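Bug #77: duplicate submission created two jobs. Keeping one. Sequence:
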Amino acid sequence: MKDDDEASASISKKLNEVIEELDKIKKLVVSPESVINNNMDAIEVKINKQAEIIFQQQLYLEALERKERRANVVILGVPDEQESLSGAVNDADRLNKVWEILGVNNAAGAHRRLGGTAQGGTNRRCCPILLMLQDESQRQHILEQAKKLKTAGEAFNFFYVKKDINPARKEWKRLHDAERTEKERAGNVGCVIHLNTRERKLYRDAVVIDSWNLQCF
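Kept job's structure:
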């Protein structure tokens, strides 16, 4: 899954770079100084078609990722190999402790740590655990019971269970939330706030104030 995330992020980055290059060409075409200004309309149509193809390819990749992640959960706050958890010294046993608290039976599935090595010193943190379950119903049951961790004792107080969300979907949500926040901001009264989904940029009066920034674990 990590390799898939990195590959998807790499492809998305390349596609975005192509879109940016197409945008530069488009600006050149509409420039009065351009020697090909007479062909502006025809070239602009081609650019827009290519941008649409790229956009659809990105949507397809994002849909594939959502399908792969639909039965996954991510568990944060689980101690790593340097710490024990109620006697459990490896991730498989730590997860079994979690399942006991949640009352989950047969939560079978592969698991692995996400991200790099935990940081040292006072900034040290535990990397999240990705659990790839067998079906969505099992995931839903775990999510519904996750609140039990908050009353299971100090060792489990900082555990958090969430869906394995597609990074692209998460980034779209962030941009839409940012657009809503900007529209509600008192200082933006009279300003035009617009999220251009094709360019993946948030504008305030034609000035970019935020843009797509895909991040994976």
